[in-house]
Specification:
heterodimer; A: alpha/beta; 2 domains; 4 helices; B: alpha/beta; eight-stranded parallel barrel; globular
């Protein structure tokens, strides 16, 4: 945005880490010495005058249910559709990615079996035992906004015990790779990635 | 390129998990069907239990970790996080729950305590823990042991919000008290609370507990949820309040609305409207009443019998 226009960023404030997103936008604005108005979005009227909308992390089922029941999902779709020259931007983090996708797949833990307890592979006190015989069940979940032509798998890496942190490398061809997938491509930049029960993009549709 | 390897179970991941539940309702469930009702209503996580607190109170006996089959059934039924309770100090139950792959463990006073002296050393686990607290000392001691989420203890299984309010206010007031002290006094206060000075200082600097802080224990209505949120908690646990009420699905949806719109009184009026019978201490009173009546009857009858 140029010409001294105050950028207005809305953050969906239903559940999850919306306050942290708010603080990050304020900090970024201070660092860039630019004026950013950050507003909380809970009802359709809150979209008025926004340049961008952020869908933060949290539980996507909670946010999706809320957005449907308050007419917010339709309002966001209309708000995007009324965007001129792609001036309106929408950004999803974690659960937000799930809300944006046009196909969502649930991955569910647990089969009713007890975990693998092979002799000699028991846990030390408080230390993760490692693999169990959990199987995953793919369930098609209803999509919410359908703004992005991708298939997203919820809980793609598993439950909390599979949550991980890792350096994320952005390569010269724009691919983002996390630690275990490191390749020899030229790394443009890197940052620390925190993957908490994170979704994964399965395919571009 | 340092830290190329993925790491799990770090403090960031454990406290980050708790942060993802903020502004949400965590509901007690005892089977897959209840778990689905809770998820459908908008619960941000469910707590898997053999018996809900109201039944633990009335049934008596020893309350333990839930059967792993029950926990697995609930995990298979929903995609939201599944938590489970371990007895205070029972690190073996916690190890089993971690091996089952639950997303968070509640070291809970609702179950029978297993250790008269020590709580679980939670820093040694990769699974995050939530613990109950009645005051700032308890909260910070649990955090020092590795808890990455705190909840008020309240009075579980009663539908009576009084104790939850008392505990939330107490924690708030003691943080304010600590903030008003100079260094020497604050060191003495840390000793009095039996907590590390650095942790108390960090709490004062943040002006709140340094981890996510929920309300729990006796919350039964959308108004109770709003009350606790306005007292400054990050979200709520609703235990017996949902599935001991006359219309669980509607009440569950209403408390979820309440946690997001806790300052919007007219919306709260709408979601509270004709919500059916809330969870009451009725069963508790009935039980106590019957017992008293029986005792009285025996008191009269026995002498007659002997006579």
């Amino acid at each position: 945005m140029s010409g001294g226009v105050i950028v207005r960023v809305g953050i969906l404030a239903v559940q999850g880490d919306f306050a942290e997103h708010e603080e990050s936008f304020r900090a970024a604005a201070r660092a860039e010495n630019s004026e950013v108005a950050v507003v909380r979005v809970r009802l359709p009227a809150d979209l008025t005058g926004l340049h961008g909308l952020v869908l933060p992390g949290g539980e996507s089922t909670v946010m999706a249910r809320f957005m449907r029941s308050h007419g917010l999902a339709q309002s966001v779709r209309d708000w995007m559709r009324a965007s001129v020259d792609h001036r309106r931007q929408i950004w999803g983090t974690c659960a937000g990615l799930i809300l944006l996708a046009d196909k969502v797949i649930d991955k569910r833990l647990g089969t009713g079996h007890v975990p693998d307890t092979e002799p000699g592979q028991g846990s030390r006190h408080g230390i993760e035992t490692g693999q169990t015989n959990d199987t995953y069940r793919d369930v098609d979940a209803p999509q919410l906004l359908g703004c992005l032509s991708i298939s997203v798998v919820r809980n793609s890496y598993g439950g909390q015990r599979d949550s991980f942190e890792s350096d994320v490398f952005i390569s010269s061809n724009g691919n983002a790779l996390h630690g275990d997938n490191k390749q020899t491509k030229v790394v443009v930049t890197s940052c620390r990635g925190i993957f908490i029960r994170a979704p994964g993009i399965k395919s571009f549709n | 390129m340092t830290g190329a390897k993925n790491v799990t179970g770090t403090f960031t991941l454990k406290s980050g998990f708790a942060q993802m539940t903020k502004g949400g309702v965590i509901m007690d469930v005892t089977n897959a069907e209840q778990a689905r009702i809770a998820e459908e209503a908008g619960a941000c996580a469910v707590m898997a239990l053999d018996r809900i607190p109201a039944d633990i109170r009335t049934d008596g006996g020893i309350a333990r970790m839930a059967d792993p089959k029950r926990i697995k059934d609930i995990m298979a039924a929903v995609s939201v996080p599944v938590m489970a309770k371990a007895r205070i100090g029972h690190f073996a139950e916690a190890q089993i729950l971690q091996a089952l792959g639950v997303d968070m463990i509640d070291e809970s006073e609702v179950l029978s305590p297993a250790d008269p002296e020590f709580h679980i050393d939670k820093s040694r686990f990769t699974v995050p823990f939530v613990c109950g607290a009645r005051d700032l000392g308890e909260a910070l001691r649990r955090i020092a042991e590795g808890a990455t989420m705190i909840r008020t203890k309240g009075e579980a299984g009663t539908g009576d919000v009084l104790e939850a309010v008392r505990h939330a206010r107490c924690i708030r007031r003691q943080i304010d008290d600590a903030a008003a002290l100079d260094e020497k006094e604050r060191r003495a206060y840390a000793d009095e609370l039996r907590v590390p000075y650095a942790l108390l200082n960090d709490t004062v600097a943040q002006g709140r507990l340094p981890v996510v802080n929920f309300a729990a224990g006796g919350i039964a209505t959308p108004a109770d949820v709003s009350l606790m949120m306005q007292l400054g908690v990050d979200g709520v646990f609703v235990g017996s309040g949902i599935f001991k009420s006359s219309e669980p699905a509607r009440r569950a949806a209403a408390v979820v609305e309440a946690v997001t719109h806790y300052t919007d009184a007219s919306l709260l009026a709408r979601v509270s409207y004709d919500l059916g019978q809330p969870m009451t201490a009725g069963r508790l009173l009935d039980f106590a009443g019957k017992k008293a009546w029986l005792n009285a009857a025996f008191g009269i009858l026995l002498p007659i019998w002997h006579y």
